[in-house]
Design goal:
This protein is of the alpha/beta class. The chain is built from 8 helices and 6 strands; from the N terminus they run αααβαβαβββααβα. The radius of gyration is 19 Å and the shape is globular.
């Protein structure tokens, strides 16, 4: 799972996480001198979803039809949580989290997983499709015609598709295949296109 600062920079690019890891490893986490400790429940999913949505202009989003192939991986629960806060019609493929990974470990470069996602996009007549890796750091996008749009997510796979859908909403009726005719994307390209569209 990625941590992203308000400036859309990875937290690990800003802070020395190895130093933090050493501090944590050196601590024994014993209770304070009074001998008492406390367990605190934290809803990390809500914080994660809210963090993702903080980077998207929700007022600009449109009710696109999106195929989300989570391949029974951890993207499934995230999609379920996001779905409640987004206007999209999300068609879920292999969405139930299953540690046995009956269709294989989620891999956005896997040919069979790509083919299944592309076919679902065409069958559903969706505006876009998405396929994630196991750690959500990478994704593969699919245009409305089922063609794969490959790219480098820079560990932002769960954020990329949301930004692309905002970009699509701001593109005055263009299709995803028209936004990315070269069938490729990079994180800097999407950031630059979205910055221009927001001005």
């Amino acid at each position: 799972m990625d941590s992203v600062s308000n400036e859309v920079r990875l937290v690990q690019d800003v802070y020395d996480l190895r130093e933090l890891e050493k501090k944590i490893a050196a601590s024994d986490f014993d209770a304070e001198s009074d001998g008492e400790s406390e367990v605190v429940d934290v809803d990390v999913m809500r914080a994660y979803v809210d963090g993702l949505l903080a980077y998207v202009d929700g007022d600009k989003l449109k009710p696109y039809k999106v195929v989300a192939n989570t391949v029974n991986g951890p993207a499934g629960p995230v999609i379920n949580a996001l779905e409640k806060k987004l206007p999209f019609d999300i068609v879920k493929v292999n969405n139930v989290f299953d540690r046995s990974f009956p269709y294989g470990v989620p891999d956005s470069a896997d040919a069979a997983m790509r083919a299944a996602t592309a076919e679902a996009v065409r069958q559903q007549e969706a505006d876009m499709g998405v396929l994630w890796d196991l750690d959500l750091g990478r994704c593969c996008l699919f245009a409305e015609d089922g063609n794969c749009i490959e790219g480098e997510c820079n560990e932002r796979g769960m954020l990329i598709w949301l930004l692309v859908l905002e970009l699509l909403a701001r593109s005055e009726g263009k299709l995803l295949s028209e936004l990315f005719p070269q069938k490729q994307f990079t994180w800097p390209m999407i950031a630059q296109m979205l910055a221009a569209a927001r001005n």
